[in-house]
Amino acid sequence: MGFKLVICPPNYQEHWPELLREEIPDIDVQVCPTVGEAMEVIGEADAAFGDIVPELLERAHNLKWIACPQAGPRAGYYHRSLIESDVVVTNTREIYNDHISAHIMSLLLAFARGLQVYIPQQVAGVWQQGYPTTYLPEATAVIVGVGGIGGETAQLCAEFGMTVLGVDPRLDEPTQGLAELHRPDDLLNVLPRADFVIVTVPETPETQGLFGAEQFRAMKSGAFFINIGRGATVILDDLVDALRAGEIGGAGLDVFQVEPLPAGHPLWSMPGVLITPHVAGNGPYLEQRRTELFIDNCKRFNEGRQLRNVVDKANWF
């Protein structure tokens, strides 16, 4: 057998065609660094990798599968014509789980030991003790989004003795590490129980602006908010207001509504805030994992088997 495949940016590797031909000798692979080049060959393609914009999809008369190059692509990737089509889309979720869960735990442990206070003191050359710590075996974490990343984070939190509550629309029962599982419509009832609120959800029509003034008011005044999912899930002005009002104890943020976070934004200098520049997913082996996933899905597609990481296109994930 074999099929016609078009590979477009971003995140592809130059050696993929060679690897694919070793696994699927009859495959026809076209690497197209530009939209213009892809326009010339996508008409008869059975599958494609990359950012397939509307003008490409319009010409793709035979397309059955698109491999999205990211777990959460740019806003607009799931355009209306793609959502309404019969094309199956897969993504790269799961390849970042260990890196991002480690990043989450670094922020959580920093807050538990007061580093958000002691780091600024170090910069200022101030020796001042006495900030209270959080005893993790008596603490509760609420994880909003218990997919691969949230699930791995739940297990790590549980290893530290924490009580972990999950909020997720897809799971039917708690996974390892979770003491309880709740639906998204119960979020406001769960938030007051949290010492740490950890948001790992992707950007979808349902999660845009998920955390705003009402959600922050529902949290404990000493609770810490951690977001490593997508910036669009949190209304930053409301977060700033909540921090200023003392409605929450602090925030650890890797993603933002606008990136880079603008110079002079209040979050840069607010007490109790730890910021990293959208690096939670960084770590070794990502390209190997992306390659393995893509090659495996190509073999599955060629053999008519179920693809890994199939996306609910209407919900972008």
Write the layout of secondary structure elements.
Layout: E1 4-7, H1 16-23, E2 28-31, H2 35-41, E3 47-49, H3 54-59, E4 65-67, H4 80-84, E5 88-90, H5 97-112, H6 115-124, E6 140-144, H7 148-159, E7 163-167, E8 180-182, H8 187-190, E9 196-199, H9 213-218, E10 224-227, H10 236-244, E11 250-253, E12 273-275, H11 286-303
Parallel strand pairs: 1-2, 1-3, 3-4, 4-5, 6-7, 6-9, 7-8, 9-10, 10-11, 11-12
How does this structure look, described?
- 32% of the residues lie in helices and 14% in strands.
- It is α/β, with parallel strands linked by helices.
- It has a 7-stranded parallel β-sheet, with helices on one face. A 5-stranded parallel β-sheet has the order 2-1-3-4-5, with helices on one face.
- The longest helix is centred in the C-terminal third of the chain and has 18 residues.
- The model has no long low-confidence stretch (mean pLDDT 97).
Give the count of helical stretches: 11
What percent of residues are in strands?
5-15%
Radius of gyration from CA coordinates: 22 Å
Helix content: 25-40%
Care to count the β-strands? 12
The strand order across the widest sheet is 8-7-6-9-10-11-12
Structural class: alpha/beta
